[in-house]
UniProtKB/TrEMBL annotation:
DUF4130 domain span: 84-251
Species this chain originates from: Flavobacterium hungaricum
Domain of life: Bacteria
Full protein name: DNA metabolism protein
Amino acid sequence: MTQVVYDSTYEGWLTAVFEIYEYKFTDVVFAKEDASNSLLFSNLHMVATDIEKAKRVFDGLKKRLSASGLEMVYHAFLSEINKMDEILFQFVKYVFASSGNVEGDLSNNEVLAVRKAAHLTHRESHRMKAFIRFQLTKDQLYYAIIEPDCDVLPLIKDHFKKRYADQRWLIYDAKHKYGVYYDLENVETVQLQFDSKSNSSQILAEIADEQEGFFQDLWRRYFSSVNIESRKNMKLHIQHMPKRYWKNLVEKIPNIKN
């Protein structure tokens, strides 16, 4: 058994796929960044991301899949479902071994799993576009904290660049430990130390613009005013707005006055 270790990026995974074929590995497992301790006796293959190798695999898939099929593979990768990189590799093997387009073959376990994972990522990226709540700091930076299950920042950054083109903003993913920053011209990926628990009133008072609390209170009042108690359906509400998102939603955080 060969353990293939890559840098957790999509390009790194594509490079790994290329090298599995290049070196004719037959029994492989994937690992991100560090080898698994449970496979101490397996052969270890370290992958250095190579854009040219990644492009060759991508171009091969492009010849055999539709545009939506290529998007499906990428979205499935971003789902970060356990062992999805291995499932995707089995999917790729099926694609390359078939004479026709296989992305609609739901009788194949890998095809079905990839489609489900892609749908999960698409749904969560759609939710993030609606649930992100920016807060304004004293230096006029709008920031938001999210903790999605899937790695959705690559899918939503262009949406926010277009929607908030006239203001600086930062969206930080506390689960995946990186963010995207817009400086009025470009969107860049950033790594930083950020306290995901910084919703406490004391910390917010230190970094927030003096009017931020006022506008947050207005939003809570609006949210409360449009809520019709007699038509309240918590089951449906949670279905559309899962509880795991609540701690980063202004309308769900109590307005604690000093």
